[in-house]
Design brief:
Elements lengths: L3 E6 L3 H11 L4 E7 L9 E4 L6 H11 L3 E3 L6 H10 L4 E4 L5 H16 L4 E8 L9 H13 L5 E4 L11 E8 L5 E9 L2 E9 L3 H14 L5 E3 L1 H5 L1
Parallel strand pairs: 1-2, 1-3, 3-4, 4-5, 5-11, 6-8, 7-8
Antiparallel strand pairs: 6-9, 9-10
Helix pairs in contact: 1-6, 2-3, 4-5
């Protein structure tokens, strides 16, 4: 069986870890490693870049009919719409976090939100001091999952200040940046006289790489559409 030819979009820390891990696997071959894709050839693109580079990558992938696993976060609705448009032409897997554990956490949080619908909910995320976007893409995904459970009637409060009590229809989001923390996400459900916390801690960035490779293997051969890690794990 021929190895899967992977084009890595982005040359930062995550891309370098991906390159190192993939080169050690017999069924994988790196055929591209660049911030801007030009003439690279391969079976799939794995994107660990910067959100401003996504539009050019989408054009390259569509023109060359190459599926993409997008792991980059920080993009706005305009770029998200471009991703959705491209997914009508090529298969794209979009995930703010490719960790298997985080995606299981997403399912747990969804189920708990439906049952604990009278609880106050707060989201806390911690990352290293070099992370540019706040809140993290994963934290935003957690909020969206919870909000959908409440029929999109909840409001997002980033941090807290001022003199007013907590509204029942709000979800607090808190970002902490410091040191070399890989990533930690907590969702806390506060009820009367009890609290329940779901927490995921990333010990190494390799967990995101292994998840991205798993996603890439899943995506090859799929029809054009927008996929997520839930599809990979189902």
């Amino acid at each position: 069986m021929n190895p899967i030819k992977i084009i890595i979009h982005g040359t930062g820390t995550m891309s370098s870890i991906l390159k190192s891990v993939a080169e050690a696997e017999e069924d994988l071959e790196i055929t591209g490693f660049a911030d801007e894709l030009t003439e690279e050839k391969g079976d799939i693109i794995i994107d660990f870049s910067y959100f401003s580079r996504i539009p050019n990558m989408l054009k390259f992938a569509v023109n060359n009919n190459i599926p993409i696993v997008i792991c980059t976060t920080g993009y706005d609705d305009k770029i998200l719409n471009q991703i959705k448009e491209a997914s009508t032409k090529i298969p794209i897997l979009l995930s703010s976090n490719t960790s298997i554990g985080i995606n299981l956490m997403n399912d747990l949080v969804k189920k708990m939100s439906a049952v604990l619908n009278n609880f106050d909910i707060e989201i806390l995320e911690t990352h290293h001091n070099k992370k540019a976007d706040s809140p993290s893409g994963t934290a935003k995904t957690l909020f969206n999952i919870i909000n959908e459970t409440f029929e999109n009637k909840m409001s997002l409060i980033n941090g807290r200040e001022g003199n007013h009590k907590r509204d029942k229809k709000e979800i607090g989001m808190h970002s902490i940046r410091g040191g070399s923390v890989v990533g930690e996400h907590r969702v806390i459900f506060y009820g009367d006289d009890e609290a329940i916390e779901i927490k995921h801690t990333a010990m190494s960035k390799k967990i995101f790489v292994h998840g991205a490779i798993k996603a890439a293997k899943f995506l090859i051969g799929k029809k054009p559409s927008l996929y997520g890690m839930k599809d990979v794990l189902s």
